Amino acid sequence: MTGPELQHGSLTHRRPTAPEIGARIAVDGIATDLVPAKTYEVNFKADVDVVTMALGPSSGVKAFDSDKTSTFTFCPGEMYFHPSGSAVYARSDRQDGELVCLVFDKHARRTVLDDLRIPASRIDGCLGNLRTPDVLNIARLARRMFLSGRVQNKLLSETLLTLVLAELAAALTTQPQGTNPTGTLNVDRALEYIEANLAENIGLNEIAQALGVSPYHFSRGFKSNTGLSPHQYVLERRVARAREMLAGGHTTLAEIAYAVGFSSQAHMTDVFRKRLGITPGAYRKEMAS
Fold first, then answer.
1. Angle at CA 8, nearest 5°, toward 3 and 11?
2. In the 8-state DSSP scheme, what is residue 252?
3. How does 120-144 read in b/e, with b if 16+ C-beta sit within 10 Å?
4. In the predicted model, what is the mean pLDDT of residues 187-205?
5. pLDDT, position 204
6. Alpha-carbon torsion, ordered 111, 225, 167, 157, to 10 deg
7. Which of 257, 256, 186, 259 is nearest to 217 (CA)?
8. Are 27 and 153 in contact (CB under 8 A)?
């Protein structure tokens, strides 16, 4: 059986026999797949790095960089890591929950590891059944990305990759070298930068670089100071600015959506419904009456 090829920039991650891919997000060297809760068989040599997280229990047989198979169990809150160049075979006979697969190229991996001050040698070779307290929360966050339709979101994808690699490093040592922050986070400056670039598809790396801190330090420090993740805050500000524009003029809905950084008018409408219980058009009429 010939399965799908996951195009990843100029790279191709081949799965000769593969599970059905239910949904996919791909942004700048990072791709995330949501795999439905169905039994599967995979047999491939990775040419990109792959992290898989479980949202439900599964079991079967596997062979990683070996021709000898062994049984496996994969529980919620655990992750597997397969670096580029590794050979992977796995067949599940039980799959009770979805899988989240994060696929990323060498540049994305090196950038995050450098920011976290984690030696590349620490994350090398196939690693399985790795667990930290936050793995399941990260997998659930990724699943919510798909269910909410937030595709092609650079900030969210970069945040997800940073969190996953940080947890991967934490799972390998009780004192990960990458947890020391670099620089001091200036929250006011971060808010000013976001406000000035709200219409752009701003990413975690750009904001952190503008502040002179690592993406990991920025993401954690921003949430501890504001109570919101960078993505949540950006979304809140886009809604607020859209509301101002809807109340103060006759600009079209599509123009407002792009002016405040939504990917489309439909995206803005979906966010308004979920957060305000009303569409942008209905909000404008309500404000005009």
1. 90
2. -
3. eeebeebbeebebeebbebbebbbe
4. 86
5. 80
6. -50
7. 186
8. yes
